[in-house]
Design goal:
By secondary structure, the protein is mainly alpha-helical. The chain folds into two domains: 72 residues; 99 residues, Serine Threonine Protein Phosphatase 5, Tetratricopeptide repeat, CATH 1.25.40.10. 72% of the residues lie in helices and 0% in strands. The protein has eleven helices and no strands. The radius of gyration is 28 Å and the shape is rod-shaped. The protein starts with a helix and ends in a 13-residue tail after the last helix.
Length: 191
């Protein structure tokens, strides 16, 4: 029994083990901060170090880092439209959490993009966020009134089909849309 504490003490005092442990902890911190590229060299040092137990754990974490980096590389987008299409594909797969992350990122990058506001409105509707959906749809329609036609036939808004606020957004008062009072239909101009 006396040998085990001596072995642990010797391992703890071993500068190579201490360095490997510090590298392992640095790798974990970087990984928790989602800095996978920064974490990789720390884990690699541990794998090359003296402790098999730490090396095994570091190997698992290194694989996780590589997977995250591969996934990130696969989701680089040339345009906002391409990124939006990816988010919509996630919605279609039912991955609403990841779709929301992508749409929110797009919205931060393109706060005036009507198609992104529209996509967020659809996602909000699908996920039961009725008030948010109506607000975002209103913003999208103000930015691009042509989206009304798309929304009228979009199954993503079926949860709002019976809501009078939704109907008002899609079928506004014709007088308001035509600008009655400034030469719209039904008004005669003085001769």
């Amino acid at each position: 029994m006396a040998q085990k504490p001596t072995a642990k003490k010797a391992t703890a005092e071993d500068p190579h083990y201490t360095q490997a442990l510090q590298s392992y902890e640095s790798g974990l911190r970087a990984m928790q901060e989602h800095k996978f590229e920064k974490a990789k060299p720390h884990f690699q040092k541990v794998i090359d170090g003296p402790s098999k137990e730490l090396a095994d754990r570091a190997g698992v974490h290194l694989n996780i880092c590589n997977q995250h980096l591969e996934r990130t590389a696969a989701t680089q987008f040339a345009t906002a439209e391409e990124h939006f299409d990816y988010a919509v594909s996630l919605m279609n797969l039912g991955d609403y959490v990841t779709a929301r992350e992508h749409l929110e990122k797009l919205l931060k990058q393109n706060p005036k993009a009507d198609f992104v506001m529209y996509g967020m409105a659809a996602l909000d509707c699908i996920t039961g966020r009725v008030e948010d959906s109506l607000r975002r749809l209103d913003e999208a329609l103000r930015a691009n009134p042509q989206l009304r036609f798309q929304a009228r036939n979009d199954s993503d808004f079926q949860n709002l089909a019976e809501d009078p606020r939704f109907t008002e957004l899609l079928y506004p008062d014709p007088g308001a849309e035509l600008g009655v009072g400034d030469g719209g239909f039904g008004e005669t101009e003085p001769v």
